[in-house]
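User: structure tokens for this one?
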Amino acid sequence: MISTRITRFCLVRHGETDWNGEKRIQGQIDIDLNAAGEAQARAVGAGLVAHSFAAAYSSDLLRAWRTAQIATRGLGLAVSPAPTLRERHFGVLQGVTAQEASVQRPEAHRHHQARTPDYDYETGESLIDFAARVTTGLEALAARHAGQSVLAFTHGGVLDVVYRAATGRALAAPRDFQLPNAAFNWLEYGATGWRLITWAECDHLRRSLDEVAG
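Assistant:
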């Protein structure tokens, strides 16, 4: 029998990396956090103290995994790896900026800008396949933790997919919402699908900056 109980998710994008600052496409290349990203991960931990979770999961890519390890140190939560939470594989565009891609890989860049749903960057994942991987993985976690709250550390592309699933936006539609590093994104999943609660909460990051400034 399928449970109709609601699972509540707090999805957190990893902290900042140097490649984020350079606007370089990371995909599934393993890039570590920079100093700012580590500070953001600590702020995430401070912001989560008031919340309770049944389980914590993370993408096994380094930037998300390190964010999770730093953020959960004081929460008493063991983090389990969840490869379905990995960023999309951007194939031939991994490691380059959009500007570099427009010169080096103009065809791939054109599809990237257009969000062509079935284009796989020659050696990567199509948007359709990526979205299926993400939603299937999260829905499996929802079934495992029906009626509970789950903390998950992941990537901008994953959040993009989940936001669209919760709001009915097409995969190919231009993005008109934010995906800040280390923000809190709260959603629920149940028998009627995804429901957005709050998106891109950054109060914990602002409090952390205020404490440093003070």
